[in-house]
Amino acid sequence: MSSKNDILIVEDSPAIGLLLKSYLEKLDYTDIHICTTGGAAITTFNDLIAQNKPPIVLLDFMLPDMDARSVLTQILEIKPDVRVILETATEKDDEGIKELIRLGIYQYLEKPIRFESLKEIIETIEKEQTFFVKESEQEEMLKQAEKQMEVKTIDHVNFILKSTNQISINKITAILGFTHEFVDTYLEKLEQDGKITKMGEKKEIACNQCDSVKTSQVFFCPNCKSSNFKLGKLIEHYDCGNITEENTYENDKCPNCKKEIKALGVDYRIMKNHYICNNCKEFFPEISIEYLCLKCENRFELEEARWKTSINYKVNM
After folding, report:
1. 120 and 227 part of one domain
2. pTM score of the predicted model
3. 1 Cβ contact partners less than 8 Å away, ≥ 6 residues apart
């Protein structure tokens, strides 16, 4: 029975999905799942986690039903330490790509995909997993793996730094998923080389259970707690008091009393920038916000958050 991870390919192009599957099979991966939409990917990912088969995820940046950020946020909520490889033709310095890296993307794979690059990333993941084998069982192998891990950690730190203009030590540690004196030593070397510059201390929101600063905001309806909402305009008809979306007033007639609305400010008013819940149909000027810890999955409000302070760096790389 294979000890390798399952692979979940989230790719809207069936041709690219099959090419990736064929190549990964050459790397001895046998349990490969292909999804062409974000919704299907989240369902499949959830099923695999339920079966205790956490997959490596290859995530396309552009999907037909939702963007990569939405998919990433939802699978991180299911399993915060999942390895997600983003595949996209968008430049690495694009703000959308940088945001995904900060949220927890493991690596970036440029399209058109070079299979050798994919192989290197997959091998790195395998080595990281091997690193945690009990030392009593494979002591010599771990020593070699640790040396390799230092090299890969440097690559990973550089990858993180190049995705942003400024970043704190706490954030670097949270993205890496571990802390080690080697990382501190490497950051000191980068500072000496002028590749990063200390900007003083930075205070960041941290989980009130595990202290991680790797958090994400979760937005939801104050009434039914659903995240299925949209931003839109509402019209209030003064005569009958009806308040519904702008598109319900066909031919300028109120959907409730069927009277025509004529003068803005006299017959009706427009309520801009209101959030409308697609589930309970309630509307509200502001949405509720919680924070999700991407390490321990704890949810908390801003008032319950802890605050962590660490050195903040300007990146000159």
Report:
1. no
2. 0.49
3. none
